[in-house]
Structure formats: C-alpha cells, structure tokens
C-alpha cells in the first residue's frame, strides 16, 4: 500500500502576514494615535471658546458672593439689586517674565466694594483655576471659588467644598498663607489641609499667595482712591 504523502502547509494568509509584521503593527499604532490626537484637538478647538465663555459668565455670577458673602449676595438678588463687575487686565512685570491677571472690580451705586481676581497654578494632578475675592483695599480675603480642577476624587477635589474654602474668609493679606495638618489653629493665616491632599491644599494657597503678592500693590493704589 502506497504511503500517504504529508500535505504541504498552507501559505500564511495576507492577514496573518500583516498580523505578524512588527513594523506594520507599529505604523498602525502610530496612525491610530494620530487619528485620535487629531480628533481630540478638533474637539478642543470647537469647545475651547465655549468653555472660556462659560468661565467668564460663571466668574461674573460669583463676584457678588465672593465680595459680599453668600447671604448678602442672595439678599441683594432677591431685592432686585445688581453689583457691577467691571473687568480689566492687570499686567505684572517680573524678572524674566510677565503675568497678566483678569480682575473684576465690584461696584454698587458708584462705590467700590471689592475685587475678584482670576488666578491659576499647578495642582497635584493638573492645573487649578480659582477666583479670589478681596476687599476694596485688598487688605483681606473675602472668599475663594475653585473654577476648575482635576484633583484626585474623594481627596484633592475636596478643595471645592464650602467647608474648606470658608477658612480663607477674613484672612488678612499682610502675611503669607501656610498649610497645616491636623486641624486649624488660632493663627489666622494657617489653612488646614484637606486630609490626604496636602499637595492640592498647598497648591491653592500658593496660587493665592502669588496673586496677592503680585496684585496687592496695584489694587491698594486703586483702592486708596475711594470711589
């Protein structure tokens, strides 16, 4: 009986050849990355202006609360009264760089009641943007509001809570803010850190300290003029 000859192996298909080709796989990954990157860039270009517009609107809405306090701002709104928020840019010259701040002057019936400053800096996970309320002479902090953050959920993102932000109200601008752990002390410029998020807490105080250092002189000069 004639022995059965073994069958010759089938040549690999085109798909299998492509699948096993490392160079082609690398180019495919690169191509997909470029496609996703372009898509994300397109979304950012489309949504970017809208996001900035929303931030400006939110800033204007927060001006009364940050300058007067939540209760007084709500009472004013119920009475149909308005607090003007006059925007301006203040340029601060520093060695080797220039910083520009968006500042809103809060006025009512022609009187200057305070200021709201938009400031930002690096947090633990990403950039933090906040609004800083100051009195008319920039001598005291009247409130802060976190405009944007991407800090760790359940930890660093607690910087947005009323309880943590209320620590800043009434603190003078004559001393640097410092972050402490384990509970707020009787020292006015000490801010109790969010538990497990000291870096996020310190980032906020650093942003405020920098903004105050840059703007206290210009705003005090404006505030000394009264109306």
From TrEMBL:
SMART domains cross-referenced by the UniProt entry: FMN_bind (SM00900)
Molecular function GO labels: electron transfer activity; FMN binding
Domain of life assignment: Bacteria
Membrane disposition: Single-pass membrane protein
Its EC number(s): 7.-.-.-
Entry keyword set: Cell membrane, Electron transport, Flavoprotein, FMN, Membrane, Phosphoprotein, Translocase, Transmembrane, Transmembrane helix, Transport
Subcellular location: Cell membrane
Residue numbers bearing the FMN phosphoryl threonine modification: 198
Domain FMN-binding: 123-215
Main location class: membrane
Co-factor(s): FMN
GO cellular component, as recorded: plasma membrane
Gene Ontology biological process terms, A to Z: electron transport chain
Similarity-based family: Belongs to the RnfG family.
Assembly description: The complex is composed of six subunits: RnfA, RnfB, RnfC, RnfD, RnfE and RnfG.
Known role: Part of a membrane-bound complex that couples electron transfer with translocation of ions across the membrane.
Protein name per its UniProtKB record: Ion-translocating oxidoreductase complex subunit G
Lineage start: Bacteria, Pseudomonadati, Thermodesulfobacteriota, Desulfobacteria, Desulfobacterales
């Amino acid at each position: 009986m004639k022995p059965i000859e073994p069958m010759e192996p089938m040549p690999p298909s085109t798909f299998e050849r492509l699948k096993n080709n490392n160079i082609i796989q690398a180019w495919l990954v690169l191509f997909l990355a470029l496609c996703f990157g372009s898509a994300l860039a397109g979304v950012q270009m489309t949504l970017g202006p809208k996001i900035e517009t929303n931030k400006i609107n939110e800033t204007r809405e927060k001006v009364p609360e940050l300058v007067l306090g939540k209760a007084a701002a709500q009472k004013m709104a119920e009475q149909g009264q308005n607090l003007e928020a006059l925007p301006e840019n203040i340029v601060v010259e520093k060695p080797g760089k220039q910083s520009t701040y968006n500042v809103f002057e809060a006025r009512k019936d022609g009187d200057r009641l305070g200021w709201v400053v938009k400031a930002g800096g690096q947090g633990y996970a990403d950039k933090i943007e906040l609004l800083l309320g100051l009195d008319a002479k920039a001598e005291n902090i009247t409130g802060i509001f976190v405009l944007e953050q991407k800090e760790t959920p359940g930890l660093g993102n607690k910087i947005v809570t009323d309880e943590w932000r209320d620590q800043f109200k009434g603190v003078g601008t004559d001393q640097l803010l410092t972050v402490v752990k384990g509970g707020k002390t009787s020292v006015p410029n000490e801010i109790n850190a969010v538990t497990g998020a000291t870096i996020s807490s310190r980032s906020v105080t650093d942003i405020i300290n920098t903004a105050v250092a840059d703007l206290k002189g210009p705003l005090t000069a404006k505030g000394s003029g009264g109306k």
